[in-house]
Amino acid sequence: MEQPDEPLREWDGDGDTAPGGHQGTMETPEVDTPDSLITSPLPPPSLELDWAWGLPPTSPPSARKPYKCTECGKAFGQSSHLMRHLGTHTGEKPYKCSACTKSFTQNSNLLQHQRTHTGEKPYECSACGKRFGWSSNLSQHLRLHSGQKPFQCTQCDKCFSESSRLVEHQRTHTGEKPYLCPDCPKTFSRSSHLIRHRRLHAAEQGPSPALAVQQGL
Prior knowledge:
By secondary structure, the chain is of the alpha+beta class. Among the domains are: about 65-110, Double Stranded RNA Binding Domain (2-Layer Sandwich), CATH 3.30.160.60; about 180-215. Helices cover about 35% and strands about 10% of the residues. The protein has 7 helices and 12 strands. It has helices at about 45-50, 80-90, 105-120, 135-145, 165-175, 190-205, 210-215; strands at about 10, 25, 65-70, 75, 95, 105, 125, 130, 150, 160, 180, 185-190. The strands form 6 sheets. The protein has a two-stranded antiparallel ribbon. A hairpin with a 6-residue loop joins strand 5 and strand 6 (about 105). The protein is extended and about 60 Å long. GO terms for molecular function: DNA-binding transcription factor activity, RNA polymerase II-specific; RNA polymerase II cis-regulatory region sequence-specific DNA binding; zinc ion binding. Its main location: nucleus. It is found in: Nucleus. This is C2H2-type domain-containing protein. InterPro entries: Znf_C2H2_sf, Znf_C2H2_type.
């Protein structure tokens, strides 16, 4: 049985004779190239990210964070970030408030704390004009306008705009009551409930001696 003729390709090499002794033409089978062998003109996103870090495309992700903490193994991209992190292990708090005795591990935390003394509120709500001393407080406030409730309870379908509200709600499932009254054995799931309860003790005991002196009693 005769085999079908295979397509011929013109020989562009030097000389009159193609490899295999054929004059002017060379027989080559047509081969389908798999898509996996076709190179793309652009590198994949992961390689582009490596080059953005100034690293060769073959560098592992760990090479982007060469500064490693010997205490816990956490890695950082900058030595200054590692030095700041080490303060969490040593307990060192070099940033001291000039208005009180508090000190902090990070300068950014000191700046935020100082606003409690100065009353500065640099973060303003664009919807109502209310101002805040911390950006996190502004973010929480903005959810009141947007109705966003990103914190969802894993035990039920309830959602909350603040993580602290979710923590309080979860205690209704766990039964946890971490707030203990110093005047009696009662415990409470919310600090506001404890404060309200302690007012009952204060009313029963009457005004304190210091308060009685102030009021001329």
